[in-house]
C-alpha cells in the first residue's frame, strides 16, 4: 500500500474512532402529567451520538454527587461512585461569554419562567416587551426548557448563570449561549432528579 493510501486509511479509522462512545446509554426518565404534555410539544432535533446521555468511566477529585462541566468539550458530568459519571451533552457559552469557577445549586425550578437579563435586553431590545410582561411563562417554547438549576457562588451570591433545558436542542454540543449551560429537556429532567440544593458545581 502506498504511503498516501495508508494515510487515508489511518485518517478514516481515526475519524470512526472519534464517533465511538465508551460508555453505556442510560434510559430516559419516566415522565407524566405536565412533563409529558410539554415534552410532546417541545422542539425536537437530532444530535450527534456522542452528545447523548451515557454512563462513563470518569476519574475526578470532586465528591460523588457533584457536577463538573467541561465547557471546551461540551459535556456535563454528574459524579457517581466507583469512578463513574453520567455524561450529558450540553451547549455552553460563546467564547466571549463563557465562565469558569465553582458554584453550587442555590435554587431549582420545574418549567421555570424566563426573564430576559439586562445584558440580553441591551443586545436584543426586541425582548423588552417580554420583560415588561413579567417574563415568559414556563412551557415548551420557553428558552429555559423543562428545568433550571440556579447557580450561586460559594459566598451565596446569585451567579446569574443557570443549568437549564432548551428550546433549541439542535445547538447541543456547541458554544452558543450567554454563559448558561443548556441541556436537552429530557436530560435536564434526568439531572434535576439526581441533584439537590447545595450540589457542588465546577465549570472548567
TrEMBL record:
It holds the Pfam family YkuD. The keyword Cell wall biogenesis/degradation applies. Residues 65-204 form the L,D-TPase catalytic domain. Keywords: Cell shape, Cell wall biogenesis/degradation, Glycosyltransferase, Hydrolase, Peptidoglycan synthesis, Transferase. GO terms for molecular function: glycosyltransferase activity; peptidoglycan L,D-transpeptidase activity. GO terms for cellular component: extracellular region. InterPro entries: LD-transpeptidase, LD_TPept_cat_dom, Transpep_catalytic_dom. GO terms for biological process: cell wall organization; peptidoglycan-protein cross-linking; regulation of cell shape. CDD domains: YkuD_like (cd16913). SUPFAM superfamilies: L,D-transpeptidase catalytic domain-like. Signal peptide: none annotated. It comes from the Bacteria. The keyword NAD does not apply. Pathway: Cell wall biogenesis; peptidoglycan biosynthesis. The active site is at residues 164, 180. Belongs to the YkuD family. This is L,D-TPase catalytic domain-containing protein. It comes from Methylocystis bryophila.
Amino acid at each position: 500500500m502506498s504511503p498516501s493510501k495508508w494515510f487515508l486509511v489511518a485518517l478514516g479509522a481515526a475519524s470512526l474512532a472519534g464517533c465511538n462512545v465508551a460508555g453505556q446509554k442510560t434510559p430516559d426518565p419516566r415522565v407524566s402529567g405536565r412533563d409529558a404534555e410539554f415534552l410532546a410539544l417541545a422542539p425536537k432535533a437530532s444530535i450527534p451520538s456522542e452528545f447523548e446521555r451515557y454512563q462513563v468511566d470518569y476519574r475526578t477529585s470532586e465528591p460523588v454527587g457533584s457536577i463538573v462541566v467541561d465547557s471546551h468539550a461540551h459535556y456535563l458530568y454528574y459524579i457517581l461512585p466507583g469512578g463513574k459519571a453520567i455524561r450529558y451533552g450540553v451547549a455552553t457559552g460563546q467564547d466571549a461569554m463563557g465562565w469558569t469557577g465553582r458554584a453550587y445549586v442555590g435554587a431549582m425550578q420545574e418549567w421555570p419562567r424566563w426573564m430576559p437579563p439586562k445584558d440580553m435586553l441591551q443586545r436584543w431590545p426586541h425582548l423588552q416587551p417580554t420583560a415588561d410582561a413579567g417574563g415568559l411563562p414556563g412551557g415548551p417554547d420557553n428558552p429555559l426548557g423543562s428545568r433550571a438549576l440556579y447557580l450561586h457562588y460559594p459566598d451565596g451570591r446569585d451567579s446569574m448563570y443557570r443549568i437549564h433545558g432548551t428550546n433549541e436542542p439542535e445547538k447541543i454540543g456547541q458554544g452558543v449561549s450567554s454563559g448558561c449551560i443548556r441541556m436537552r429537556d429530557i436530560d435536564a429532567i434526568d439531572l434535576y432528579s439526581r441533584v439537590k440544593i447545595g450540589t457542588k458545581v465546577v465549570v472548567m
